[in-house]
Design brief:
This protein is an alpha+beta fold. Helices cover 33% and strands 26% of the residues. It has 19 helices and 22 strands. The protein has a 20-stranded antiparallel beta sheet, with helices on both faces. A two-stranded antiparallel sheet has the order 16-17. Strand 2 (121-127) and strand 3 (133-141) form a beta hairpin. It is globular, with a radius of gyration of 26 Å.
Length: 541
């Protein structure tokens, strides 16, 4: 199970894959039952703070436009469109609307569905407990809602699949919230006011179930804002993503870094979000950076997102490697807790570390054992503190083994038993370099690079300072394939293994044909928080 989680998390860090995940979450319609819920807002979502925001001229064209990216087209293929158009949930929703329209002699059969999918819309998405973007709110503006809603109100009084779930106050008016049970354990909510229509994928985003229909105050205020006639209230999510009110000429997908990093974003607060825009037949990437936090996190307080100190010590040809602007002061509470287990406090380490840190995966290791590299002050003199930190952070009964090299490197390791077998994590410091991995071999490879005994990732990089990521699709595909089949033993999982052979392997083979890519920041914000271009360039091999 741990390997499966690591598999999904590490793959998602590739930003192109993030686009696919957001788009897939948008069209999946995965919702649960109306009666199987607990307290108010049973999903425990903060509806005022979505994890992603999609703005589009047409939801129905988003999957097809996504496939204009060559990598997405070759990996997702046409089956992606088939799934979107023929998914069980979409067909169930369409069938329910047709049945209601037919039985009640209404003229809007598929009109409601087309109103949402074939028109400009905004979609906010929230992660579920399993970390996937499963819950959404869709907001659209239409000038043909009055007659339709009159008919909906009448149907809700006598139809078995539609009912009034509750009511909201919007701009002084009382607005009914309707529940549509369109399949077994599949229910959505929708409400309309004036020219605005809002659809929620799950009743638990507002209510607690059939026996508890009290609304969540924050959620109700959010939905009421989306239904309001004023544009500034409708765009309630825009300030969080630093977006203007102008509608995009195509598609725009913004994803918060906290979602992409699985909750670790507070440790690199300067990087706030990623955005993917589709305009004039092409996709472009941008990054939301906070210049003030970059200045605080940078070397010697000078600021900036400069990764030039990391690439010269990282081994050549990573499967995937990313640098992030770490806020080292944010580690102080963690170090304080760990220091309670040691003979001396390790909190001072937060002040010794500086600049960005890198997380890298290599084909000769595992997805759950990346190597982490950071930079410390060259005059820190804190080797003993790192040893104390390692002993406190890495549990186990075996003693910690400490070694010192002729180059001044100090290395600690400990053998531990895990659910995936025996592991030997290691930590080492030498000069201004700090390196850790759950796979001690990767730590040794970094030390070898620093001794000039092995090639470095920087050897073929034209601009290490502005490079924030490297992806080698061929190597990454091999790593993913190994992990996938390692979690599906032929004797225990013959059906899933056969499915992986049929569906996963061809897509990974397509991924292997792509050259290495590097992610380059072409500029940084001078002040405040701003979106800056993120370029994908072919990397030298």
């Amino acid at each position: 199970m741990l390997a499966k989680k690591a598999f999904s998390k590490k793959v998602l860090f590739g930003s192109l894959a993030a686009v696919a995940v957001v788009a897939a979450a948008l069209v999946s319609y995965r919702v649960f039952g109306w009666g199987a819920m607990g307290p108010v807002n049973s999903l425990k979502l903060d509806l005022s703070r979505p994890d992603a925001l999609v703005r589009t001229k047409s939801l129905s064209t988003l999957p097809r436009d996504l496939l204009t990216v060559p990598l997405a087209r070759d990996v997702l293929r046409e089956e992606f469109l088939f799934y979107y158009e023929q998914s069980e949930d979409r067909l169930g929703l369409k069938g329910s609307l047709r049945r209601i329209a037919y039985e009640h002699q209404l003229g809007w059969g598929d009109q409601l569905l087309r109103m949402v999918l074939d028109q400009p819309a905004e979609v906010a998405l929230w992660r579920d407990a399993d970390g996937s973007l499963k819950h959404f709110a869709i907001a659209v503006s239409r000038n043909q809602l009055t007659r339709l809603l009159e008919e909906v109100g009448k149907v809700a009084l006598k139809d078995t699949q539609m009912s009034v779930a509750g009511r909201l106050r919007v701009d002084g008016d009382t607005v009914p919230v309707y529940a549509l049970n369109y399949a077994w354990r599949r229910t959505l909510l929708f409400a309309a006011h004036g020219q605005r229509l809002v659809i929620l994928s799950h009743p638990g985003m507002l209510y607690g179930g059939e026996e508890n229909k009290d609304g969540d105050g924050t959620a109700e205020k959010t939905v009421a804002s989306l239904l309001a006639p004023q544009a500034d209230k409708q765009n309630i999510f825009h300030p969080q993503f630093h977006l203007d009110q102008a509608a995009p000429d195509g598609h725009s997908i913004a994803v918060k870094a906290d979602f992409l990093s699985f909750g670790y974003q507070p440790f690199f607060g300067a990087l706030e979000a990623l955005r993917f825009d589709f305009q004039k037949g092409a996709w472009q990437s941008t990054v939301l950076l906070n210049a003030d936090k970059l200045k605080k996190d940078g070397k010697d307080g000078k600021g900036g997102y400069d990764s030039s100190a990391l690439w010269p010590v990282l081994p050549h040809s990573p499967s995937a490697c990313f640098s992030v602007p770490v806020d080292w002061n944010a580690l102080a509470p963690v170090l304080k807790r760990l220091g309670s287990k040691t003979s001396e406090p390790v909190v001072p380490l937060a002040g010794h570390l500086q600049g960005p840190a890198a997380a890298c995966w290599y084909g000769n290791s595992r997805l759950h054992t990346p190597v982490f590299v950071a930079t410390r002050s060259a005059q820190a003199g804190d080797d003993a503190l790192y040893g104390s930190l390692f002993e406190a952070a890495i549990g186990g009964k075996d003693p910690v083994r400490k070694t010192a090299g002729k180059d001044g490197a100090v290395r600690w390791e400990r053998s531990i038993a895990t659910s995936l077998g025996q592991a030997t994590p290691a930590l080492a410091v030498v000069g201004n370099t700090v390196v850790f991995s759950a796979d001690s071999k990767l730590v040794d490879q970094v030390l070898a690079v620093r001794r000039k005994q092995a090639p470095a990732a920087s050897d073929l990089l034209p601009d290490g300072a502005r490079t924030i990521g490297l992806i080698a699709p061929a190597s990454l595909a091999k790593l993913i394939q190994f992990e996938a089949f390692d979690t599906l033993p032929a004797n225990n999982e013959p059906v899933l293994r056969a499915a992986a052979n049929e569906h996963l392997v061809p897509r990974l083979d397509a991924l292997k044909k792509y050259p290495p890519l590097r992610m380059v920041l072409t500029q940084q914000p001078a002040s405040g928080t701003a979106w800056v271009p993120l370029e994908w360039q072919e990397a030298a091999r």
